[in-house]
Design goal:
Shape: elongated
CATH architecture of the largest domain: 7 Propeller
Largest sheet: 5 strands, antiparallel
Number of domains: 2
CATH superfamily of the largest domain: YVTN repeat-like/Quinoprotein amine dehydrogenase
Number of strands: 32
Structural class: alpha+beta
Strand content: 25-35%
CATH class of the largest domain: Mainly Beta
Radius of gyration: 38 Å
């Protein structure tokens, strides 16, 4: 007989979780997890995108040799002394020491055409002088040379670029006509010279004439060309000036505007003559050391002078305004010394960069960022001529019968740690400073990309907004949570949280167009409010406390808030009414004039006080909501236990509730900090957006976020400014990340410390 095991107790199906609910719970968990991961991936994707846009700023420039050309020269012993090319480097022109201009194929080095420009310019070709010095003037597209009979040869070179129907480019080189400009009437040899021709055909030539038995002479010839507006006839006139030199020169340089002439001496002195229509003013002499000056050039715009010396020293000098409104050449930057004497300099036609060559080395430098971008072996030893291509994407080095064509990749030379966060001595300034000015009146103005004023402005706006938001938000949350009647709290808390829904553009609009003009007229009332309102609140509290308990008990707990509202309204009205009399009494009738006269601080209508009030109003709801939740989440048994032990309500709140809620309060403050740091529209509309570094509450500033909003429409895609704005966004990302990380660490420590209460 089979014995069956006893059956277990029947299962109560009512206690089992329905399968449908399990599936829904699991699906919900997957959806929430997927959403969280998607947010993390999205944030990481944004970070990666920002990093990819910023990364090119860190790329190192490079200079490579595209081609080395050996040019066949007709005359024995002739050498190439000056070279230039078109903007595409599709045609080359070279001036040789025998007075010929060679049109050279840039790919093969073959001479396509040879023009005897020296012989063509001579009235008597039989009396052929020798050339004593050859130079390239890239701003004027000139090949120039000095002669042994006191003249200067000017050879204009034009490159005519055309395109076929198929888009193929063709470049035609036109040489001349050459011109021999007589500098010394006695026919003495020109030792050193400088020449420039402007777009209207007017030329200025400065030359050091061989001394012979007398003192060295500086001769300056100004040839002006005038065109008759009716007949179109052109007439030329020449004015000649002479000045005595303190000693022999080693080099001369004339800027493209023909307003400043510079000379170097064997004693390491720099001579500077301001020119007015070719007439030299009083010479200024400054010392660059004891080593002879071997090369001079000015950077684009003519405000920075680059000086090369015999010992390889390389420096940049600026014309700095002095206290008496005069200008003095001031040495502002020194670059690493070359192993040999600086033989040639070439300034970039598009930025503040330049090439420098000695006998064996070649370097690429940038003045504003004080960067040595690249250094290497010179492709041609003993460079006699150095040329920077018009597009700043290449160059030429020539010596003897050789020409080397260079490829230059230099996308963002303006950026360095110094220009981003340090003081930089910019052109036109009398001292180093932190400056943000992304664009100027012309391309000649160097970009000023210091992020320090923007960081200071971000912290300034955040400080003044939190100065208002933290006390009101935290203490308001404390009062609403611990002292206010629940019925009133149910009304007040939603109203305050609704404040967070107000668009920041509306707050910025009201702050800039309504609050700022009114605040400008009633600034003294703010000082009165800082004194009177706390006094009124204390007096109102004392008066309420002095009322009989039986009378106070007739009102719900927290009803005294209405008394304080009335008192504060009366206090504000009183302060506004007394603004003018108080201003007359304390500030002589005009606060703005008193501020400027007494402290030297200006007053701007849109200032940090306006931003503090408007942005504080935007941050208060966030701090209030999170802090109120922190206060309300304190266990009731802690409050009851404290009160049962005899502590009054204030002692319980300050010694039990506040420490316990401190992690949440700290989180509220940090979240408010992050909100203020990233605010854009209020700052954009309520300040003057001036990137200055002052903590004066009565002037404006510019923040990182507002700067992005202002500059992004004008930033060319892929340019330095474009990537700098992404760098500003990365800084904001890092600031908020660090703040949130520190806040979380502090919150955890506070939580561990007070969780045993």
């Amino acid at each position: 007989m089979a014995i069956s095991s006893p059956a277990g107790p029947p299962r109560d199906r009512s206690l089992q979780t329905p399968r449908r609910r399990l599936i829904l719970d699991r699906l919900a968990r997957w959806i929430v997890s997927a959403g969280g991961l998607a947010i993390i991936v999205a944030i990481l994707g944004i970070l990666v995108f920002i990093l990819l846009e910023v990364w090119p700023l860190l790329r190192s420039p490079r200079v490579t040799v595209a081609r080395r050309l050996e040019v066949p020269l007709a005359a024995p012993g002739a050498q190439i002394g000056a070279v230039l090319s078109d903007e595409h480097r599709a045609a080359l022109a070279a001036l040789t020491t025998d007075g010929r201009v060679l049109t050279v194929d840039p790919d093969s080095g073959k001479v396509l055409k040879s023009d005897d420009v020296l012989g063509a310019g001579l009235p008597q070709p039989s009396a052929r002088p020798t050339l004593t010095e050859l130079k390239t003037q890239p701003e004027s597209r000139l090949l120039t040379a000095a002669t042994s009979d006191g003249r200067v040869l000017l050879v204009p070179v034009a490159f005519d670029i055309s395109f076929s129907d198929q888009g193929k480019r063709a470049t035609a080189t036109t040489v001349g006509p050459p011109e021999l400009l007589e500098v010394d009437l006695q026919g003495r040899a020109v030792r050193h010279f400088a020449a420039q021709v402007d777009g209207e055909g007017s030329a200025t030539v400065a030359a050091e004439i061989a001394a012979g038995e007398g003192p060295e002479t500086l001769a300056i010839v100004r040839r002006a060309t005038e065109e008759n507006a009716i007949t179109g006839e052109k007439t030329a006139s020449a004015i000649r000036h002479e000045a005595r030199l303190p000693g022999p020169l080693t080099t001369l340089y004339l800027d493209a505007a023909q307003k400043n002439l510079y000379g170097g001496t064997s004693d390491g002195e720099i001579l500077w003559w301001p020119l007015q229509d070719g007439e030299p003013g009083t010479v200024t002499t400054v010392s660059a050391g004891t080593s002879p000056i071997t090369a001079l050039t000015t950077l684009i715009g003519g405000r920075s002078l680059v000086v090369g010396q015999q010992d390889g020293s390389l420096s940049v000098w600026l014309q700095v305004r002095q206290a008496d409104d005069s200008f003095r050449l001031t040495r502002v930057r020194d670059f690493p010394r070359h192993p040999g004497a600086i033989r040639a300099l070439a300034a970039s036609p598009r930025d503040k960069g330049f090439l420098a060559a000695d006998d064996q080395r070649l370097g690429l430098y940038y003045s504003t960022s004080h960067r040595t971008l690249w250094e290497g072996t010179a492709p041609v030893a003993g460079a006699a001529s150095l040329f920077y291509a018009p597009k700043a994407d290449g160059g030429l080095v020539a010596a003897g019968d050789r020409i080397a064509s260079l490829d230059v990749v230099n996308p963002h030379p303006e950026v360095s740690w110094r220009t981003l966060f340090g003081k930089v001595w910019y052109e036109g300034y009398d001292h180093p400073d932190y400056v943000w000015q992304s664009s100027g009146a012309s391309d000649d103005v160097e970009p000023k990309l210091s992020l320090t004023p923007l960081l200071a402005g971000t912290l300034k706006g955040t400080f003044y907004s939190l100065l208002l938001a933290i006390p009101l938000g935290v203490f308001g949350a404390m009062y609403a949570s611990q002292f206010m009647h629940p019925a009133f709290k149910r009304i007040l808390k939603p109203l305050i949280e609704i404040m967070a829904s107000l668009p920041s553009v509306v707050l910025g609009f009201l702050a800039g167009l309504w609050l700022a003009p009114r605040l400008e007229k009633t600034v003294p009332s703010l000082a009165l409010m800082a004194l009177i309102l706390p006094l009124f609140v204390l007096l109102a509290g004392f008066a309420w406390k002095s009322l009989p308990r039986a009378f106070r008990n007739r009102f719900p707990l927290g009803s005294e808030v209405f008394l304080f509202v009335v008192v504060l309204a009366l206090g504000i009205w009183l302060c506004l009414s007394l603004s003018k009399p108080f201003e007359q009494l304390a500030f002589g009738g005009n606060f703005q004039s008193w501020l400027l006269t007494t402290t030297g601080l200006p007053f701007d209508q849109r200032n940090a006080v306006v931003v503090g009030l408007a942005m504080g109003f935007a941050v208060i709801p966030i701090i209030f909501a999170i802090a109120e939740d922190a206060f309300s989440n304190v266990p009731g048994n802690l409050v009851a236990g404290s009160l049962a032990l005899g502590a009054d309500r204030w002692q319980t709140v300050t010694r039990v509730v506040l420490p316990t809620a401190s992690p949440g309060i700290f989180s509220a403050i940090m979240i408010g900090f992050g909100r203020a740091v990233g605010e854009t529209m209020i700052v954009l509309m309520a300040t003057g957006n001036t990137p200055i570094m002052e903590w004066n509450p009565f002037n404006g500033f510019r923040t990182l976020s507002a700067n992005i909003a202002v500059e992004i429409p004008e930033a060319p895609h892929g340019g330095t400014l474009y990537r700098m704005l992404f760098l500003a966004g990365l800084l904001l990302f890092l600031i908020t990340f660090v703040i949130n990380t520190v806040a979380e660490l502090v919150r955890q420590r506070l939580r561990e410390r007070y969780q045993q209460l």
